[in-house]
């Protein structure tokens, strides 16, 4: 039981993603595979009792086959004789099909306990309506459907990039990535650059998706990057060699990865406040250096680092350890005083154009620089994020400059924050 192992290994977790194995064999499906889930309702209830949210993967473009449990209802709704066994094509622009799609395929599972859906669309950008890309329209349909059925809960859609404006609804994912150091090295630039088009909540397959399994060191560094990014989500292709259960790795990598997850949860109050600011202003929590320093040439080439909120600069390690068991990075810092939170050192930058620094880090160290004067809201002892407030808040102040900070809280579930039901 993976959920139980998270708890016994003292690893915080909030969302359980069930990929294609939840449904019958095939590229897509809407019927539970009873070999693995003999009682889906019980499975979902047990996960919910642990305080977890659950999402299921679907590839909707394949339509609805005659083997599906609810095929007869869908067929009759769209005017197809169920006895024909005719596959029902996916028709995102057909109101009749979409009504049946939600009513018979999604609503029963949501009533059973599915919290949101992973829309794994990858079948092109054309539809029956000229100029309408199916994916952004599908994202909007799912958002609006959740909003109408559950007005007391915030909608959530987990989906791919759907073109310009695609960041309006989904928590994004970049698709299948290779498990290589080069792939990891691309991620900081890729994720930060997405902020230029308002796609501020982009996730990646931590550890990569396919190819040779990542080395323990590569997986550890990827986990550290994920801990300081908008979404921390492990994933891999269906291959026993591609194991993402980090407790199965030997120390020191296991303990370092678990520590990275704890650091992520410790930082959630700061991240959540920055995410609220992103909602209000459109400025992504994770963004390129040139967003805040547009008049500095170096900010445009500092592509191995990014701003995380207003007060932190993160420069993830994306190369292997050298013979001295250290990993080098090159980081550009704007003028001012900075605190290297990994090494416990102060870095003073006097030049108006900022300065470049060469620094080295051990496996368990993540290059995160806090601005002097920053006040960072954090927490301790968090295993879930389902509480309406932070029971054990921690405030960290970095002296040496003028600054302030805030601790933002709302109920974390409802849209009431839009009406001002929040505290700072």
Primary descriptors:
424 residues, alpha/beta, TIM Barrel, Immunoglobulin-like, 2 domains, 6-stranded antiparallel β-sheet, globular
N/C terminus separation: 39 Å
Number of domains: 2
What's the number of helices? 9
The second-level CATH architecture of the largest domain is: Alpha-Beta Barrel
N-to-C series of helices and strands: HEHEHHEHEEHEHHEHEEEEEEEEE
Task: Describe the protein's architecture and organization.
With 424 residues, this protein is α/β, with parallel strands linked by helices. The protein folds into two domains: 280 residues, Glycosidases (TIM Barrel, Alpha-Beta Barrel), CATH 3.20.20; 134 residues, Sandwich (Immunoglobulin-like). Helices cover 27% and strands 16% of the residues. The chain has nine helices and 16 strands. The strands form four sheets. A six-stranded parallel sheet has the order 1-2-3-4-5-6, covered by helices on one side. The chain has a six-stranded antiparallel sheet with strand order 7-8-9-14-11-12. The protein has a two-stranded antiparallel ribbon with strand order 10-13. A hairpin with a 3-residue loop joins strand 8 and strand 9. Helix 7 packs parallel to helix 8.
Q: Can I get a quick summary?
A:
The protein has 424 residues and is of the alpha/beta class.
Topology:
Elements: H1 2-8, E1 15-18, H2 40-49, E2 53-58, H3 71-77, H4 95-112, E3 116-119, H5 134-149, E4 157-160, E5 171-173, H6 181-193, E6 202-203, H7 216-227, H8 253-281, E7 286-287, H9 289-292, E8 306-308, E9 312-314, E10 327-333, E11 336-340, E12 345-349, E13 355-361, E14 368-371, E15 375-379, E16 393-397
Parallel strand pairs: 1-2, 2-3, 3-4, 4-5, 5-6
Antiparallel strand pairs: 7-8, 8-9, 9-14, 10-13, 11-12, 11-14, 15-16
Helix pairs in contact: 7-8
């Amino acid at each position: 039981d993976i959920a139980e192992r998270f708890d016994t290994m003292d690893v915080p977790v909030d969302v359980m993603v069930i990929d294609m194995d939840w449904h019958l064999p095939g590229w897509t499906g809407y019927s539970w595979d009873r070999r693995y889930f003999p009682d889906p309702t019980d499975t979902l209830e047990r996960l919910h009792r642990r305080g977890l949210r659950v999402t299921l993967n679907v590839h909707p473009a394949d339509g609805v086959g005659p083997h599906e449990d609810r095929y007869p209802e869908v067929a009759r709704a769209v005017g197809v004789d169920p006895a024909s066994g005719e596959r029902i094509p996916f028709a995102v622009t057909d109101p009749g099909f979409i009504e049946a799609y939600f009513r018979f395929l999604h609503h029963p599972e949501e009533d059973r306990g599915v919290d949101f859906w992973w829309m794994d669309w990858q079948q092109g950008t054309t539809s029956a309506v000229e100029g309408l890309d199916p994916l952004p329209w599908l994202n909007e349909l799912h958002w609006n459907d959740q909003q109408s059925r559950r007005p007391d809960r915030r909608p959530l859609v987990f989906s791919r990039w759907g073109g310009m404006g695609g960041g309006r609804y989904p928590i994004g994912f970049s698709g299948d990535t290779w498990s290589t150091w080069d792939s990891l090295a691309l991620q900081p630039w890729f994720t930060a650059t997405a902020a230029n088009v308002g796609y501020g909540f982009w996730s990646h397959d931590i550890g990569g998706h396919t190819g040779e399994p990542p080395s323990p060191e590569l997986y550890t560094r990827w986990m550290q990057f994920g801990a300081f990014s908008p979404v921390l989500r492990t994933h891999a292709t269906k291959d026993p060699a591609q194991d993402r259960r980090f407790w199965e790795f030997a120390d020191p990598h296991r303990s370092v990865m678990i520590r990275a997850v704890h650091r992520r949860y410790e930082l959630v109050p700061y991240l959540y406040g920055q995410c609220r600011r992103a909602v209000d202003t459109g400025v992504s929590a994770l963004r390129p250096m040139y967003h805040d320093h547009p008049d500095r040439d170096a900010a445009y080439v500092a592509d191995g680092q990014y701003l995380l909120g207003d007060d932190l600069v993160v420069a993830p390690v994306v190369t292997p350890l050298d013979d001295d068991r250290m990993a080098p990075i090159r980081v550009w810092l704007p003028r001012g005083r900075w605190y290297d939170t990994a090494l416990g050192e102060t870095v003073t930058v006097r030049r108006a154009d900022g300065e470049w620094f060469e620094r080295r880090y051990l496996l368990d160290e993540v290059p995160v620089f806090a601005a002097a004067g920053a006040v960072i809201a954090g927490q301790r002892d968090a295993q879930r994020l389902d509480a309406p407030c932070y029971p054990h808040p921690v405030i960290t102040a970095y002296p040496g400059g003028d600054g302030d900070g805030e601790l933002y809280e709302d109920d974390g579930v409802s849209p009431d924050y839009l009406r001002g039901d929040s505290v700072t």
